[in-house]
Amino acid sequence: MAERILVAMSGGVDSSACVSLLQKQGYEVGGVVFDMSPAHHQAVEDARLAADFFGVPLTVCNLRERFSRQVIDYFCQSYLSGETPNPCVRCNPTVKFAALYEEMRRGGYDRMATGHYAGIVRRGETYYFTQAQSAQRDQSYMLYRLPQEIMARLLLPLAGMEKPQVRQLAREAGLPTFDKPDSQENCFIPDGDYPAYVEGRCGPSRRGQFIAPDGSPAGPHRGIAHYTVGQRKGLGIALGRPVFVRAIDPASGDVLLCDAGEEYAGEIRLREVCAPDPAQLTEGAQVLVKIRSVAKPCPATLHPLPGGGLTVRFATPQRAPAPGQSAVFYRDGLVIGGGIINRPRPENGGAAGGPQTTA
C-alpha cells in the first residue's frame, strides 16, 4: 500500500511541483490549503484548481483567528515596540506547520510535505535542516524554529532543485500556472505598506524626534512603525550627508541616527534561543550566522549568558542587525539553532529564555 503524504498547497509553482514529484514517486497524495487572512482568498482558489488538475483531495483549513492572534498581533506589536518582525519565522512553528501536522494526523496520513527550499537530515536521533542547493532560494533560515516532532515527519522534495528546474517540471506536467509569479514575502500585506497596515490596525505609532549622530534633536518623525534599523532611504530628513537608523527607542519615541559605517555591530544578544541539540551551543562555539534571511553567512562565536540567552560575536562587524529579526547558526551545512535579536539595551541583560530543544 502506497505511503500517504499530505502536501501544503497554495496553487503556486513550488507546492504544485511538490505534488507532481511525490505522485511520480508513487505516493498517495492529499492536499491542504490554509485560509489565514482575507489576502489568502486567491491562494485558496488557486490551490483548488491545482488539486483538481492533479486529482488530489483538498482540505481548506480556516486559520484566520489563529493567524491573527499568533502572527498579525505579534507583527504589529513588534513594530510598535521598535523592532523589525519576521512573520514567517513566527508563523511556521505556531500556525502553518502546526496546522499541517494536525491535519496530517487527523487525516491518517503517514507524512507531510511542502514546497520549501531546504533539506532535512538525521544525525543519530536528531533532525537538522540543511541549506537548499539553490543558495538564492534557500529557506532554512525561516524554518529553524520547527520542533523535532514536525521535522521527523516532513518531506521537502525541492531541496536539491533550482527554481528554473521547478518551473520546467510544472510545465512538463501541464500545469497552467507554471509561470505564476513567486509569492510575496509578506502574505497578508500584498501591497507591502507595513506602516499603513500596522497603524490602520492599531492606531498611530509613537512619535518622537530624530536624534542626529551628535545627539541633538533633528526634527520630528512620522511614528516609529515607519522605520527599521539600518534604514537610509525614506527618512524624510536632510542633514547634508547620508545617515542611517541606528536604534529605535519605543519608550521615548525617538529614532537615533548614525553616520555611514556606524550602523555596523561587532556583536548581538539573542533571546528565545532554540536548537535541535542545545549541547552544541557551548561557550566559544564557532558557527556561521545569518542575521537576516538574505544575508551572507558570516563566522562568529557563541557565548551563553547567565540566566539564558546568547551573545554572538562576529569575526567582522555586520551591518545593521535589526532587533526582532532572527540570527540563525550553521555548521557543516546544518542549521544548529538560532534566536531573536534583542534591542541593544543594558536592561535587557542576557535576554529571556536560554537554549531550548526543538524536540
TrEMBL record:
Keyword tags: ATP-binding, Cytoplasm, Disulfide bond, Nucleotide-binding, RNA-binding, Transferase, tRNA processing, tRNA-binding
This protein's encoding gene: mnmA
Keyword Manganese: no
Pfam entry (one): tRNA_Me_trans
PANTHER family: MITOCHONDRIAL TRNA-SPECIFIC 2-THIOURIDYLASE 1 (PTHR11933:SF5), TRNA 5-METHYLAMINOMETHYL-2-THIOURIDYLATE -METHYLTRANSFERASE (PTHR11933)
GO biological process, one term: tRNA wobble position uridine thiolation
tRNA-specific 2-thiouridylase MnmA-like central domain: residues covered: 204-258
EC number: 2.8.1.13
Reaction(s) catalysed (UniProt annotation): S-sulfanyl-L-cysteinyl-[protein] + uridine(34) in tRNA + AH2 + ATP = 2-thiouridine(34) in tRNA + L-cysteinyl-[protein] + A + AMP + diphosphate + H(+)
Organism from which the protein derives: Bittarella massiliensis (ex Durand et al. 2017)
Gene Ontology MF terms: ATP binding; tRNA binding; tRNA-uridine 2-sulfurtransferase activity
Binding residue positions for ATP: A8, M9, S10, G11, G12, V13, D14, S15, F34, G115
Subcellular location: Cytoplasm
SUPFAM superfamilies named in the record: Adenine nucleotide alpha hydrolases-like
Site features described as Interaction with tRNA, chain residue numbers: H116, Q325
A single Gene Ontology CC term: cytoplasm
Active site residues of this protein: C91, C187
Chain spans, region Interaction with tRNA: 137-139
HAMAP family noted in UniProt: tRNA_thiouridyl_MnmA
Domain spans labelled tRNA-specific 2-thiouridylase MnmA-like C-terminal: 282-341
Family: Belongs to the MnmA/TRMU family.
Protein name as catalogued: tRNA-specific 2-thiouridylase MnmA
Free-text function comment from the UniProt entry: Catalyzes the 2-thiolation of uridine at the wobble position (U34) of tRNA, leading to the formation of s(2)U34.
